[in-house]
């Protein structure tokens, strides 16, 4: 059966998470003031104190927008705010009683997203950062094809730290290393997919801990 108080749960969880991380956002202040006015879970003082603390940390425009909606008593709380308020034990006990089912994890999708991040995250070649996003891969492939047809030219190429001038040999070395990095990324994802099927990988942490290529390690010299 639908419970009216279930609508409060995501708001409360988000606010408690924001409080633990000392975050301040306009929507958080608005929600906390609303919870306090409605005396949700019988801890209005906490919600109002939390709302005041969040409001005090907003930029000038957002803070003014919130203050315009407050009563004199609520505005006074903002003016006199001190530390982040501690959640009451009664509220924590209520939250602890919530046990939502965790959403199922699509390990294949997670492995694909991890592969994409590694693949496009760049490599270091002889102390030079080389970008490996999809656009850079295309440019590197184009430059490689160009120097194969014109081995005597010098290629102007833009790296993460600026322009460099490359010989055909250097351009070929970069293309080979980037190509190997991309292939290794897909090979890692393929191996992980096989391990998921076999049951030897069953968590996101195990996917993260897999021997992905690069991961900030300097690529071998050409």
TrEMBL record:
Domain DUF4376: 107-209
Designated name of the protein: DUF4376 domain-containing protein
